[in-house]
Amino acid sequence: MPGKIARRALAGLAAVALGALCLAAPAFALPELTEDQRSTVKAVNEYFDSVKTMHGDFIQFGPNGERAEGKFYLARPGKIRFYYNPPAKIDIVADGKSVSVRDRKLATQDIWPLNETPLKFLLEEKVDLLGNDQVSSVTVEPDLVTIGIDDNSTFGSGRLTLIFDAKSTELKQWTVTDAQGLDTSVAIFNTTVNGPTNPKLFVIDYLANTRQKQGN
């Protein structure tokens, strides 16, 4: 099973759901939306689908007030990298098939299939927020669009709450509420969409743990 740090890192960051939401169906139906609300959600959906690459900065707040920050780099489908600034030592990489959570201080890493982690929500190509009955709530306000999603995965069940700017449709913040009711919130900023990206950012060193063991 994933370690505590890896669970929190993956759960907290994976809620950026910029892709098809392969979630467990909720026990209730999506509420009715007005035509204006549907139009706003459709614009958010189109923004989702238009994002092929993205990079920027993030700040993450844990349930006990702890704070971490860093940079993220995304290339859909399947690839992402989260780099936590010091003093944090975590580095998260998805290469299209696997996810690595690497501890830079200990030079160790844990690896799981991508489709068994919450990061799968981030990295698919298509999304249908209006037609997918797995989205559990949508709230449209003059300045914000909030979308709630129920998640059940290898890393535990919970709720993802995504917050978008209603005018620009850009993702601004998200909160993960885990099975224990604990919240992890993340804000992203200084983002660049559909700019150039470096494939070397998304390479996992699958032999790193073997070399570490051999060196001990």
Automatic annotation (TrEMBL):
UniProt keywords, alphabetically: Lipoprotein, Signal
InterPro entries reported for this sequence: LolA/LolB/LppX, OM_lipoprot_carrier_LolA-like
Superkingdom as given in the UniProt entry: Bacteria
UniProt keyword Signal present: yes
KW Lipoprotein (keyword) present: yes
Signal peptide from the UniProt entry: 1-29
PANTHER family noted in UniProt: OUTER-MEMBRANE LIPOPROTEIN CARRIER PROTEIN (PTHR35869:SF1)
Protein name: Outer-membrane lipoprotein carrier protein LolA
Organismal lineage: Bacteria, Pseudomonadati, Pseudomonadota, Alphaproteobacteria, Hyphomicrobiales
